């Protein structure tokens, strides 16, 4: 196995320090100085890689806040593909610190740079996964190519976050299947029925 370059090791230490501090003090109180001290790095090293705190946190969140969601292996129908995506999203969410997620969401409302970075690093990626699933469904003739994957991703992600952060109700398989059958597929059907 090839050894990692010194720069990669330094970057990883910085990102882990940022995630650790984010969980401890929250985004508002996190400083580049504290990250540098925790990572045993200089502020100049951090600023050479990231222009500011928002980009640093965005990269750290993308790399270390749960596993990235990938488009699941193709099934034979859209329903099974959607369930598979939601299973991936659930696995990523339940592996994360709820307080960290909530803190990021609150900070994103106050800091446009952070909001932009997190959207670019995390949310856009989730939209891309839904887009891939819908593109496969379009290739099979199940939906037209014009269906709104962004809305589908937003509704699916919001329902999971609501269960995790607000209601505390189970994020079990039954809920995921119900979300697909009662919300996502009917929403797609309504898009198909529009003139």
Output the radius of gyration: 19 Å
Please indicate the percent range of residues in DSSP E strands (runs of 2 or more): under 5%
Q: What kind of assembly state do the chains in view correspond to? A: single chain
Largest sheet: none
**Share in helix:** over 70%
Q: State the CATH class of the largest domain.
A: Mainly Alpha
Give the name of the CATH superfamily of the largest domain: Tetracycline Repressor, domain 2
Ranges where pLDDT stays below 50 over 5 or more residues in a row are none
In terms of structural class, how would the helical and strand content be classed?
Answer: mainly alpha
Number of helices: 9
What CATH architecture label of the largest domain applies?
Orthogonal Bundle
Topology:
Layout: H1 6-29, H2 32-39, H3 43-49, H4 53-64, H5 78-94, H6 98-110, H7 112-139, H8 149-167, H9 173-193
Helix pairs in contact: 1-2, 1-4, 1-6, 4-7, 5-7, 5-8, 5-9, 6-7, 7-8, 8-9
Description:
Residues 31-50 bind DNA. This is TetR/AcrR family transcriptional regulator. The protein has 195 residues and is mainly alpha-helical. It has two domains: 6-53, Homeodomain-like (Arc Repressor Mutant, subunit A, Orthogonal Bundle), CATH 1.10.10.60; 65-193, Tetracycline Repressor, domain 2 (Orthogonal Bundle), CATH 1.10.357. It is 76% helix and 0% strand. The protein is built from nine helices and no strands. Helix 1 (6-29) crosses helix 2, helix 1 packs across helix 4 and helix 5 packs across helix 9 (173-193). The relative contact order is 0.11.
């Amino acid at each position: 196995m090839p050894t990692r370059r010194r720069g990669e090791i330094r970057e990883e230490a910085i990102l882990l320090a940022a995630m650790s501090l984010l969980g401890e003090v929250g985004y508002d109180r996190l400083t580049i100085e504290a990250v540098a001290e925790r990572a045993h790095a200089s502020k100049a090293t951090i600023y050479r890689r990231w222009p500011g705190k928002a980009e640093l946190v965005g990269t750290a969140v993308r790399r270390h806040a749960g596993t990235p969601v990938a488009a699941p292996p193709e099934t034979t129908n859209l329903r099974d593909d959607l369930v598979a995506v939601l299973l991936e999203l659930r696995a990523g969410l339940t592996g994360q610190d709820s307080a960290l997620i909530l803190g990021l969401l609150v900070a994103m409302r106050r800091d446009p740079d952070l909001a932009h970075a997190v959207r670019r690093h995390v949310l856009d990626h989730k939209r891309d996964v839904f887009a891939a699933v819908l593109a496969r469904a379009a290739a099979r003739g199940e939906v037209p190519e014009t269906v709104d994957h962004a809305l589908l991703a937003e509704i699916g992600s919001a329902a999971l976050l609501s269960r995790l952060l607000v209601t505390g109700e189970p994020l079990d398989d039954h809920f995921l299947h119900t979300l697909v059958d009662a919300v996502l597929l009917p929403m797609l059907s309504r898009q198909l029925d529009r003139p």
